[in-house]
């Protein structure tokens, strides 16, 4: 339908050129991938929910002074963002052991960590996004030491804020992944939160039941992904009237056999 120039297509999103230089349109697809795209499925309605949830979280984070690339939501699947130079790192913050840290360090999933832990991964699909240290980051020039400090401090603030926000709606923020970009403004360069924050990039567990309300439902073939994401949106109070994601509002999240 649109003749916009496609700048970049990722696994779950497309970036189009924006209405003026310095702006892009971020489009949320319904595609779900895991294990570096070895597993792929199209899940109806996921993109719409992630667009809303990410918009909400970016706006709330801006309210507490976290600079972000977000400008405004354009429609059900798209948001206007500032063009940034993406720092090629995935920044993961963990509160509770799950996923790769549980495997790597032999921790039982669900074990609270002694304190929140920040990790960096090099964004390189060909290498399966390997974990890297500050030494690697500075030696290879992916980011400078002050930038690493800034990303770490911002990641921990984001974690504190989001952990509280989710706890208020009965959800434990187990871990999440964020990305940062460099934004040049009036000859000044600053680091801003970029990409998205959604149940695709977080682990979210129901406080009462430990039900998973995130992409692990897809990774682990548990089903009920859209229902879980819709429940997250509903608890955040952001499900819009007449939205596609309301079509199946009837059923509530049911705990699956795997839980
Ligand atoms: N994550 C992500 N994208 C990635 C890798 C991880 O959004 O490419 C998120 C993931 O959803 C989880 C957190 O980062 O919330 C930590 O993921 P982990 O290192 O445990 O890896 P996984 O078990 O997902 O492979």
Question: How does this structure look, described?
Answer:
Strand 10 and strand 11 form a beta hairpin. The protein starts with 5 loop residues before the first strand and ends in a 23-residue tail after the last helix. 27% of the residues lie in helices and 32% in strands. It has two domains: 112 residues, Phosphorylase Kinase, domain 1 (2-Layer Sandwich), CATH 3.30.200; 121 residues, D-amino Acid Aminotransferase, Chain A, domain 1 (2-Layer Sandwich), CATH 3.30.470.20. The strands form three sheets. Strands 8, 9, 10, 11, 12, 13 and 14 form a seven-stranded antiparallel sheet that branches. The protein binds uridine-5'-diphosphate (UDP). Uridine-5'-diphosphate binds next to strand 9, helix 2, strand 12 and strand 14. The site of uridine-5'-diphosphate (UDP) has 14 residues, from strand 9, helix 2, strand 12 and strand 14.
